[in-house]
Amino acid sequence: MDIYNYINSPDVAEYCRKIGKTWNTCEMAVIIDRCYCLLEEKHKAFRELISSYPDMPSIPNLHGISFSSIHDTLVKKMTYENWLIEVFNTSETNVVYTYKTGNIKGDKYINDGIFSSIDYVTSYVSDSYENNEANYVRVNRSYINREDSIIEAEYNFTGNLYWIRMWNGGSEFNEMQVLDLAELFYIDIPVPFKKGDVLIMAEKFPYYNEPFVLEGCIHEDDEKTKLMAIDGSDMIAWGFFVNENGILHGDHTTSYDSLVYYNGKFEGNYRLLHYLNLYFNEKLGLPEFVAMQNRIMIEKILNHNLHINWHGISVPDELLAENQITQEEKS
């Protein structure tokens, strides 16, 4: 098995190949579970792990959850997910389906309709959207007048299943929800990124995302921060983003093994990330960086907040000074 193919970020995968990073069977299972790929492909990889790699107990977990056999755990996990699929696809008189969808441009649609089967949902989505309008579709199956046993699944536009899970499950399979390996376990996945790099989510993800400047993330070789690594939810990065007003702010972002270097243009407010990168790399001083942020913020205010075409104020484009043609230009 080429386990590097299951790392979401091609930049991280290439780096791990380069340094010869390896993982044990349980860690490989976590990497596969973290991978954003079709559930069918994920189960195929799990079966290969069971048949070709040695069994072992689970790696340490600070939640006190452990397994004596990763092979048996993967079988239970696949059994549970296949059972969820079967239930999800079964229509009942007191069950309804709702959906929401979105795309990489950031457009999101929440449908107000209620459907009686998953077939009606997929048919409606296919008739109502184009592929680039609905890169992903999330469907909820829930019971009328009940809050338990809500099953959520994510599909691509053509109806292929990426993941499925149950919220507030009320069945005998409820205990199997602890088999979310990607969330349960922190594992060491080295990354090539350093503070100040401009990053973005890997292209394989269908969700809208924006570039940011990396502040830091937890690494196994960082003695101060690895003590914070409790489970998979700690495998995230922190960074600096630019809001719609051109103001810099810090926030956590996605899993760092899903990030790649940003190679796009720095346009609009994103220009500030370029200057922040220069600042972290000591190519720009703090006063210069602050000056550029002020410039971008002022441009934003002038372009979007001081309206010149609204009720009571109307300056036609042809009368704007910047659109005037001088006599010299006319001749």
Structure in words:
- With 331 residues, this protein is α+β, with helices and mostly antiparallel strands.
- It folds into 3 domains: 3-86, no CATH class; 90-170, no CATH class; 198-304, no CATH class.
- 31% of the residues lie in helices and 19% in strands.
- It has helices at residues 10-19, 25-34, 39-52, 70-88, 118-128, 181-184, 271-280, 286-304, 327-330; strands at 95-102, 108-110, 136-143, 150-155, 161-167, 198-201, 212-217, 236-242, 248-255, 259-261, 309-310, 313-314.
- The strands form 3 sheets. The chain has a 5-stranded antiparallel β-sheet, with helices on one face.
- Strand 11 and strand 12 (313-314) form a beta hairpin.
- The longest helix has 19 residues, at 70-88.
- The protein is globular and about 80 Å long.
- The model has no long low-confidence stretch (mean pLDDT 85).
